[in-house]
Fold:
Amino acid sequence: MIYNAAPLPFQGQKRNFIKQFRELIKDEFRAHRNGIFIDAFGGSGLLSHNIKQIYPNARVIYNDYDNYSQRLANIEATNEILQAIEPITKKYKKDEKVSGEDREKIIKIIDEYIKRGYFIDWITLSSKLLFGGKYAHNEDELKKEKTFYVKNPKTPLRQADGYLKGVEIAHKDAMELIKEFENKDVVLVLDPPYLQTSKAGYKCFWGLRDFLKLIRLVREPFIFFSSENSDILPYIDDLVEYGDEAFKGYSLKQAILTNGQAKTDYMIYKSGVRGLF
Ligand SMILES: C[S@@+](CC[C@H](N)C(=O)[O-])C[C@H]1O[C@@H](n2cnc3c(N)ncnc32)[C@H](O)[C@@H]1O
Structure:
């Protein structure tokens, strides 16, 4: 089975781009079908999963910086917690506001599971309890939300067996991982966070300096994700104009994403000339 979206919620996953990504991998990166792909900013693993499904003989390294695989491994526990809160949430209609009293009861149930040493998937739980695509990443973030809502409480999460089958998992800083493969023939799949200009409130700050460090590590073959908002194309054109070899002659695919507000996302890529037949 091939997933078009990550099995558990993950903000920034490339599900709106997955069809174009698959086409790109099939059409332009076939020469690397037995090679190595490094998904350095792996997020939910959706890109790694898709590459492995398309090229089962490739070595695919999924850099799981956010420990998403731990959330996957705990789907059963998360379902148990969801089931425990269901007697409360089932009184409500979808998207209905939960009373303050019931919110307290839900928190009490979650606290019980914390006491019992359960792994708590805050993002998935909050996706069922918060409104408007809001997520909590930890206990404090969930508890500070004064209003809970009911979002599809009865749908148990589907097991995701096989989603990461055959994929190698790393948990490292992306730059470190890329440097480890410095002299090897690898395809770099780079989907970094969007540039942030303020460090306030961010657990993993990704700023201009990180972005520039990454740009210096880019080499062919690569796929680099970006968006129109980040103004990357004029910057890359400027790099090329001043002699940058890595991006010289790059190709581009775009997707107009219409989730909420229309915006253009890019896949900037070079597939390399050295085939691995
Ligand atoms: C845009 S998301 C990637 C989404 C992914 N392609 C998917 O489809 O799920 C960027 C990811 O990079 C991670 N990240 C941030 N700083 C990082 C670093 N220094 N090294 C590796 N990953 C990092 C973020 O936590 C986030 O998961």
Notes: The mean pLDDT is 92. The chain has ten helices and seven strands. The radius of gyration is 21 Å. The chain has two domains: 15-67+174-270, 72-143.
